[in-house]
């Protein structure tokens, strides 16, 4: 349950950023079927127990996928920086959960056919049920 609440909170937070909403054609929970590039989606998430004696908790790992176009490897660098900055400022308190810690894990970038670029951003969030 906490994993789903985090996914919803993260999407709402990212969608609420005017710079990201103005730069991306979609910010959604899975790859959009009809949105043109660029778009951002939660590619996957997984959770493990992070409970204490007094609180139920989870460590949730979330992978976000950014898809766009560009001839140059750095073509999406500014957009990635905006996404990372927004996630770093994610508030702790959300409906049903409180984020105790969040940390960047890794990023992966690749060139795909048709001049497409993909960037995968992975984060870990430790949270407790509120």
Quick description:
It is built from 3 helices and 6 strands. With 130 residues, it is an alpha+beta fold.
Strands, total number:
6
The level 1 CATH classification is: Alpha Beta
The count of helical stretches stands at: 3
Q: Roughly how many Å apart are the termini?
A: 12 Å
Query: What is the SS-derived class?
Result: alpha+beta
Beta-strand residue percentage: 35-45%
State the CATH topology: STM4215-like
Helix content: 10-25%
Could you give the order of strands across the largest sheet? 1-2-3-6-5-4
Spatial shape: elongated
Rounded mean pLDDT score: 95
The CATH architecture comes to 2-Layer Sandwich
- How many individual domains? 1
Rg measurement, Å: 15 Å
Explained architecture:
The chain has 130 residues and is α+β, with helices and mostly antiparallel strands. It is built from 3 helices and 6 strands. The protein has a 6-stranded mixed beta sheet. The mean pLDDT is 95.
């Amino acid at each position: 349950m906490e994993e789903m609440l985090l996914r919803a909170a993260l999407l709402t937070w990212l969608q609420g950023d005017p710079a990201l909403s103005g730069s991306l054609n979609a910010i959604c929970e899975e790859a959009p079927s009809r949105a043109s590039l660029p778009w951002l989606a939660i590619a996957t998430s997984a959770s493990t127990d992070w409970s204490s004696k007094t609180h139920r908790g989870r460590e949730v790992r979330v992978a976000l996928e950014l898809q766009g176009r560009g001839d140059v490897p750095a073509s999406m660098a500014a957009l990635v920086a905006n996404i990372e900055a927004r996630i770093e400022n994610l508030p702790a308190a959300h409906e049903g959960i409180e984020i105790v810690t969040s940390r960047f894990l890794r990023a992966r970038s690749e060139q795909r056919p048709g001049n497409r670029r993909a960037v995968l951003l992975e984060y870990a969030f430790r949270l407790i049920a509120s």
